[in-house]
Amino acid sequence: MTIARGYSALMIALVALVLVLMAASLVVGPATITPFEALRALFRSDGAATLVMREIRLPRTLLAVMIGGTLGICGAALQSFLRNPLADSGVLGIGATAALGAVVAIYTGLAAAFPLALPLFALVGAILSVLVVLALGGSAGTTTLILAGIAVASLASALTSLALNLSPSPYAALEIVFWLLGSLSDRSMLHVQLAAPFMILGWLLIAALGRPLDALTLGHDTAASLGFRMSRVRLLLVLGTASCVGAATAVAGSISFVGLVVPHMLRPLVGGKASRLLPASWLGGASLLLAADLAARLVSPAKDLKLGVVTALVGAPFFLALVLKSRGRLT
Amino acid sequence: MRAVDALIAFVLLIAGFGNAAADESPRRVVSMNLCTDQLALYLAAPGQLVSVSYLSHDEKASVLAAQASRLPVNHGLAEEVFLLHPDLVLAGTFTSRASIEMLMRLGFRVERFDPESSLDDIRSNILRMGRLLGREAEARRMADAFDAEISSIRQDRGPRTPLGAAYYAGGLTSGLGTLVNEIITTAGWRNLAAELGIEGMGLLPLELIVMNRPDALIGNNQKEEEPSLAFQNYSHPALIAAVRAGTGVTPLPERYTVCGTPATARVIRQLVDQRRRLTGPAGGKS
Hints:
Number of domains of chain A: 1
Oligomer: heterodimer
Largest sheet of chain B: 5 strands, parallel
CATH superfamily of chain A: ABC transporter involved in vitamin B12 uptake, BtuC
CATH topology of the largest domain in chain B: Rossmann fold
Structural class of chain B: alpha/beta
CATH class of chain A: Mainly Alpha
CATH architecture of chain A: Orthogonal Bundle
Structural class of chain A: mainly alpha
Mean pLDDT of chain A: 86
Mean pLDDT of chain B: 84
CATH class of the largest domain in chain B: Alpha Beta
Radius of gyration of chain A: 20 Å
Shape of chain B: globular
Distance between the termini of chain B: 31 Å
Strand order of the largest sheet of chain B: 3-2-1-4-5
Order of helices and strands of chain B: HEHEHEHEHEHHEEHEHEHEHEHH
Helix content of chain A: over 70%
Number of strands of chain B: 11
Strand content of chain B: 5-15%
Low-confidence stretches of chain A: none
Order of helices and strands of chain A: HHHHHHHHHHHHHHHH
CATH superfamily of the largest domain in chain B: Nitrogenase molybdenum iron protein domain
Strand content of chain A: under 5%
Radius of gyration of chain B: 20 Å
Number of domains of chain B: 2
Helix content of chain B: 40-55%
Low-confidence stretches of chain B: 12-22
Number of helices of chain B: 13
């Protein structure tokens, strides 16, 4: 009872945090518009300010929420399913292979002719790496899984760089940075529309896994004896993760560490039940990415600091601390 | 237009042929930099220039690609240049530093040119190239013709100076102290990046374009380019809605802006024509 009440309080606090950060994200930008004017221009037509708010800042804010939520919920689901504290879409190479798919779609000109090719190619890339990871995940230990993820991520990053170097566009080489580190600058509503259906589908598929994942904390055999078919859970997880991480990467590049950090911060607060950790991690991921994007814009407004730089600055030390803490158990 | 330039260059070459063989003039000149390539192509006597950089064969980068294609290319490597036995090597200040230093150690005469970042730089680089190649008379004629062209452009003032936003792939712009800034202002436009205080090449945030509502974007012609993310900015709905002249981008081809050459006057003329279309003829009603 007290846990349930504490959980409601936590969720309300997280929703409030997301809303506050969204408001902050909407009022920060290079154009000099006061916060009050900015929020008013969002709702009432007011010339250029409305254009800035509705077409530049709103899509950026929405994408930060959607992508952060995606990374948070996927990290929580993967950690619960694999029963591995180091699992996350970045560490397992899902973001990197999705980026590879997106790069192929864009630089062959396919995405220009057929916009849906972009999220679809990213999704296919993501599915491939989830399958590799899950093929190992059933039997292999933590170390093997992480090493496989690192190998997949390095290979995909190398192939992305190769594809960009071979691309005839003179700008392609510079854009490697975007695909490896991610950015939300100057995205438009078109990106939101392109990514939203795939992300929502992914969230729903993963959200449906709450109870099976709860049962899984008791072990594979117990979960199976409770009537959950593990092959089906696995399939939903593959499709759900690939769908939303693929779409997120297709519009913003691969952003690391959010999915790793957020479930760890929230797990002690929600009491370890996966069905509770999933929605909390969605909100936590959205907050973290909004905050990271705000930091990227405030630290160097004119230089387009990449989002992945900020999340790595927060996430990498956390990751190291995690590795040190669980060093005894890993080997 | 290019045929006319080629003709001018040809006439200049013929006219200067008589005194080109002056004793101290270099006979085998190798250029390792796109900008020196073009000035040398404009000014050198027939046979005097023996190799240009590989970029000069690219029509997107060079205004004299056709002339350059008759000469063998080098890739700015010391070994290639060494094998050509030049008595004068032309290079840029910032490119191929290691190769250039090696060539200097090997005893070659290397002359480095600063990139042109103003119309005055174009004039002084033309004159310096003329001196180095022993073609002073041709260089002076070319510089005077360029000056005359620029001052006639400067007298052509319209009823108002429209606001242009130089905007290239990846959201970059040219601000104060750049050749593009001089091109735009000489053509009777205001340059948004300069008014925002951006110096050199820098990022121009989309929000600031939308808030300042420029009359036109001035930048690369997207249709000529290979697909890449860099051009996504041009199709951003906010940008299309905010620029008064509509979705089009007034082209400022890179071959006129990467290096300053006598042909730079041509792109200034194009911007003047575009300005007239926007604001009406000189002396007209506003």
